[in-house]
Design brief:
2 domains, 4 helices, minor pseudopilin epsh fold, alpha+beta, 195 residues, single chain
Length: 195
């Protein structure tokens, strides 16, 4: 039979766990530091980066879109360069758009002739890319001809023929749109999926 504590004066207590950790406990290894080391974090970041690059390589993400965007930026630079050259040198230029590229023309002695400047011929389009040119809401015939037609005029006064030039890439099934205004500005939108 158990007697109440008040009668016997003996109490049985359960041992309590310490609420505070003493310095001696830390030295003996009772407390463990939590968190990651720098090496562990670097290894995780490296594994994630390798996995993402392998995934991008296996799926071929964006290669054709990047090529299409490069063509658009190169053409934008070409228009800007031709506008500056036309104004500073008092020359008139034109671009003859063709299905798989373009030709830069220069106005000399009453005729449009192909420009002799080799810098303007450095820009190229891939075989899978094709063009469509719209001027004043009319689709222009850009089939290859023996004498190229001047489609987009870039004049020494700083003016340019307003246009919409769509470039499509059959491999990536996407396209870009270049829009030129009367003042010589060119805006590129895309790449966007073909619709």
């Amino acid at each position: 039979m158990k007697l109440p504590t008040s009668v016997t004066g003996i109490s049985i207590r359960k041992p309590r766990l310490p609420l505070r950790v003493h310095f001696t406990d830390i030295r003996e290894g009772y407390c463990r530091q939590q968190g990651f080391t720098l090496w562990e974090l670097l290894i995780v970041v490296a594994i994630v980066a390798i996995t993402l690059s392998m995934l991008q390589f296996s799926m071929g993400l964006g290669d054709d879109d990047r090529n299409l965007k490069r063509v658009g930026k190169d053409l934008g630079k070409l228009f800007h360069l031709l506008s500056q050259e036309a104004v500073f040198e008092s020359r008139n230029y034109a671009i003859s758009v063709q299905n798989r590229g373009f030709i830069v023309l220069e106005y000399e002695e009453g005729n449009w002739v192909e420009s002799s400047d080799s810098f303007f011929t450095r820009f190229s389009m891939a075989e899978s890319q094709s063009s469509e040119l719209v001027i004043e809401d009319k689709v222009i015939d850009i089939s290859k001809k023996t004498i190229p037609d001047p489609h987009i005029l870039i004049l020494s006064s700083g003016e340019m023929t307003p246009f919409e030039w769509r470039i499509r890439d059959e491999l990536s099934q996407s396209g870009i749109l270049l829009q030129g205004n009367l003042l010589g500005g060119v805006l590129m939108t895309g790449p966007e999926p073909l619709g």
